[in-house]
Amino acid sequence: MTPASPEIARRMRWVMLVLLLVFGGLVVRLWQLQVLRGDRYYHQTVENVVHERYLPSIRGRILDRSGVPLADNRPAFNIYATPRTFTPAVAAELRRLLGLSDEEMDKVAARVETGRKRATRHPVLVLEDQPRERAARIEQERFRLPDLEVRHEPYRYYPQGALAAHVLGYMSQMTADEVERLEGGAYEPDELVGRYGLESMWENYLRGKMGTERFAVDARGQRLDEATAAGLIQGDRIIEPVAGYSLVLTIDAGLQKLAEKAVAPFPAAAVAVIEVKSGRVLALVSKPSFDPNVMTGHLTRAEAKFLNDDPRKPFIDKTLRAQYPPGSTFKFITTIAALEDGLAQEEELVTCPGSYERSGTTFDCTASHGKLDLLAAIQHSCNIYFWTLAERIGIDRMAEVANEYGFGSRTGVGLNGDNPGRIPTRAWYEQHTRFKIGYTINSATGQGDVEVTVMQLAMAYAALANGGTLFVPQVVDRVVRADGGTVIPYDPQVKQRVTTPPEVVDLWRRGMWKAVNEVGGTGYGHATSAVVTIAGKTGTAQVKAKRSKKDEAQIRGWHPSADHAWFAGWAPAEDPTIAIVVLIEHGGSGGKVAGPVAKAILEGWWTKVRAPAP
Questions:
Q1: Most confidently modeled of 166-175, 206-215, 567-576?
Q2: Total domains in the fold of the chain
Q3: Which residues contact 347 (CB under 8 A, 6 or more apart)?
């Protein structure tokens, strides 16, 4: 055998050296991958294989005082998409498959974009509460569109439709700003959250706590069986969700239906019905309203525009947030102030010629009433009698009494704005303009710059009816678990005690009785009932707005320049159980318009709703 040449030997040494270097590099690289970075790459691998999805909790129900469901949950088909793989081609195929409109596609795109900002691999809800046919089409194309998914989940709905909509509120998906603000919190970016009313105010109690499911998938995105996935999933595979608490309200669904039916003929109205001995709210109506089922995930742009453009402002709660001049329903403040200070007597006669002139301004009464005593002035709602009293007591003293009955401050219910209203004083006018005696005259009859909410007026009349206790309005009676067990009971809460002497309140109450039940009373024949005795005070409040031709053309029977129609009172007259305030916005005469509405509600309560005596 011929010995290898030195050249060949030299080359072989170089080959061996290269092989050793390559092999050594591989060993070092394997050591780096498996030892130094092994855990990190393992977790990345697991993350690509192991997916996580949240399990929605069952939202708490909202029930009326007898257990009638006002807000509940039902099964729904929800469609999810994974932002990372939601390409324009997938979007086009989704549109073709389901026949989506431009508006629906815009919603899908917005939700996917929000998901991309948070977790691109985490599926996000793009279409909620879909018809069965759409869900079936997605399921049929599951192998071709693996990153689209249909989930069968609970969905919020309102079985009574628009009943008590402003009280209940509605739900909608979080905005991008909310998702960013709640990053790392207990919310998923595609969750529906309470937007109004109790749904918003009691969100933390109602929503519960979501659960989590972890599962493994293969390269095609198909789920692996539990046995195969067991070695990849560390920790609990499923953390069960916790159901939210339910709310039992003080609202009576039967009375609420009666009240909403009573104001149905009118374009805009508000009603509050209060249990006088506890402050519990039995019915609360704000019209125009909205359907929470439409607002919760089904509101189209056209519907939203229609609601937002409505000059009657359907999203404003007219019982709590809107404030109005109360008109003659406010005269009890003037009466109490004058009687408490000894500046008026029941028998004192005042002549009403039909007009009243002060400082060059003429104030017109509703009629020429002639000579009247105080009870007759209440019965006939003679403005001149109360203007006379107002000049004696002054605007600041009226403001003191008004504040004592809760006007000028929030009621404390903490719902939908709860406006404090406005009770002007001399100092208030000096800050804004120059004080004139005419401001005192206007305030005496609930006009000028005096503004109250329907709820404030209802709570004040409840205090007159119950002997002087001004309650905080109570809407939620108790918080309960899914099994019905009480978690938190709520007792009536007193806001303040009113110090009006009983004989003063009694005089006003007798005047209210005459206003409804004696000939000549402003509510006689309109609110007079043979079913249950009613005591009440009517009010026709003038407004400052000018009539708009556009508004006249849009809404028949509703004009911004027309008077507000009021009725405030209680029943039974001799032993009050419930207080009621009715406002027909721009409705005209309080007695003729609001009186019959109050009568219908109180008679319905007495004959159909009232609990039988024990």
A1: 567-576
A2: 3
A3: 373, 374
Predicted pLDDT at 142:
81
The percent of residues above 90 in pLDDT, for the chain, comes to 64
- Taken in order 63, 64, 65, 67, the sign of the CA dihedral is negative
Q: Specify whether 200 is located in the same domain as 81.
A: yes
Q: Which residue intervals of 143-265 are DSSP H helices?
A: 165-168, 176-181, 197-201, 203-206, 226-229, 253-262
Query: 239 and 379 in one domain?
Result: no
Does one domain contain both 208 and 324? no
Are 284 and 203 contained in the same domain?
no
Residue 115, amino acid: G
The residues, ordered by sequence, that sit 6+ positions from 85 with a Cβ below 8 Å of its Cβ are 147
- Mean pLDDT across 343-348: 96
- Alpha-helix residue ranges (DSSP H) falling in 213-269: 226-229, 253-262
Same domain for 288 and 175: no
What is the number of other CB atoms lying within 10 angstroms of the CB of residue 156? 24
CA distance 386 to 398: 12
Angle at 63 between CA 62 and CA 68, to 5 degrees: 140
Cβ burial, residue 25 (10 Å; 0-12/13-18/19+): exposed
Both 501 and 596 in one domain: the answer is yes
Predicted TM-score (pTM) of this structure? 0.86
Average pLDDT over residues 303-323: 93
Residue-number span of the structural domain to which 270 is assigned: 253-609
pLDDT confidence of residue 114: 81
Cα dihedral sign, 426-431-432-434: positive
List, in sequence order, every residue forming a beta bridge with 352; answer none if it has no partner: 370
Which residues contact residue 482 at a Cβ distance below 8 angstroms, ignoring those fewer than 6 apart? 58, 60, 243, 246
